[in-house]
Amino acid sequence: MKKKVFVLALLFLLLCGCTREARGEETIRELTVVGFSQVGSESDWRVANTESIRETFCEENGFELIFDDAKQKQENQIAAIRTFIQQKVDYIVLSPITESGWDSVLEEAYDAGIPVIIVDRRIHVDDESLYVSRVGSDFRAEADTAMRWLEHELILRGADKRAQRILHLQGTAGSTAQLLRTEGLEQAVAQNPLWSIAAQLQGAFTEAKAYESTAEFLKTDCEIDVIYCENDNMAFGAMRALDDAGISYGVDGDVIIISFDAVRAALDECLAGNINLCVECNPLHGPRVATIIAQMEAGQVAEKELLVEETYFTQKNLTQELIDSRTY
Ligand code: AHR
């Protein structure tokens, strides 16, 4: 009897095993496997970006997404790409933390015949054929928009003939968003004899670091006219530090706050008059990457770089309706 039960149980397990295997094979055959290496979750922008990728590359859309959070470390991204190669994914999507240091690992992906799509920030590689396409923002254009707006705003305030000291909060060093937003500011300052940069502080694109850096700075220097924050979360940190120091800011305040991304929480602050300018940086790249993959699947050649159209917001052009209609 015992022997009979054992044989039946074995048969059952074997059948289950076979079924799972068959289902597994079916899944792998049906779905396009995408390995995505994300920088981390430093900002509201990044969270919205991750959501966009996750929503797009889901099973219902015919994808299996292998997601890796690099926790702000390039070495983790490189390790993730190597794992994707071993897993023989169909596509690798890389959201690179910095611009340099990708040549070797992308050569490995290339040799394995796996197409790589770059999302958000740019990369610099000796051989551009190592990646198929890059989709993201024109970070330099964003900075130029901010600088043009500041020039105009100072004229409107009758402050264009007065010296302006700008406190600069920088994002992750070596990332395209940091490099080009910094370049735009520095060029505008070089061209305007009345403008100067009071200090360049590290904010790591996070509210916590920006708060810490700004609070420390304000202990010895409160003569600031503008704070140029390379993203919204750093603006939130700077505003908290200004609150602590009893310094007013925004539309009716002493310090002009400029910020990038235009996530919903920042637009709320902008409508309330606390942030003067929010320059948009759109994080919804999932469908854009899916279009590139669809083109490749159809045997078409994707464009090497796809830049997203963006705008800017102030209290004057914002409405609650517009904020409510925003998905991030
Ligand atoms: O690379 C895009 C930037 O990275 C966003 O402006 C910022 O919020 C994010 O962390």
Helix % is: 40-55%
Instruction: Give the overall form.
Output: elongated
Q: What structural category characterises the helix and strand content? A: alpha/beta
- Small molecules (ligands, ions, cofactors) in the structure: alpha-L-arabinofuranose
| Number of separate strands | 12
Number of helices: 11
Low-confidence stretches: 1-28
Task: Work out the oligomeric state of the chains in this entry.
Answer: single chain
Characterize the largest beta sheet: strand count, sense, and whether it forms a barrel. Answer: 6 strands, parallel
The end-to-end span amounts to 63 Å
- Report the sheet-strand fraction: 15-25%
Strand order, largest beta sheet: 2-1-3-4-5-11
pLDDT averaged over residues: 93
Tell me the series of helices and strands, N- to C-terminal.
HEHEHEHEEHEHEHEHEHEHEEH
Rounded Rg: 24 Å
Feature tags:
disordered N terminus, six-stranded parallel β-sheet, elongated, 11 helices, six-stranded mixed β-sheet, 328 residues, alpha/beta, binds alpha-L-arabinofuranose
In terms of topology, how is this protein built?
Layout: H1 2-30, E1 32-38, H2 44-56, E2 63-69, H3 74-86, E3 91-94, H4 103-111, E4 116-119, E5 133-136, H5 139-156, E6 164-170, H6 176-191, E7 195-202, H7 207-218, E8 226-229, H8 232-245, E9 256-261, H9 264-271, E10 277-280, H10 286-297, E11 305-307, E12 312-313, H11 320-324
Parallel strand pairs: 1-2, 1-3, 3-4, 4-5, 5-11, 6-7, 6-8, 8-9, 9-10
Antiparallel strand pairs: 10-12
Helix pairs in contact: 2-10, 3-4, 5-6, 7-8
The structure holds alpha-L-arabinofuranose (AHR).
The site of alpha-L-arabinofuranose (AHR) has 13 residues, from helix 2 and strand 9.
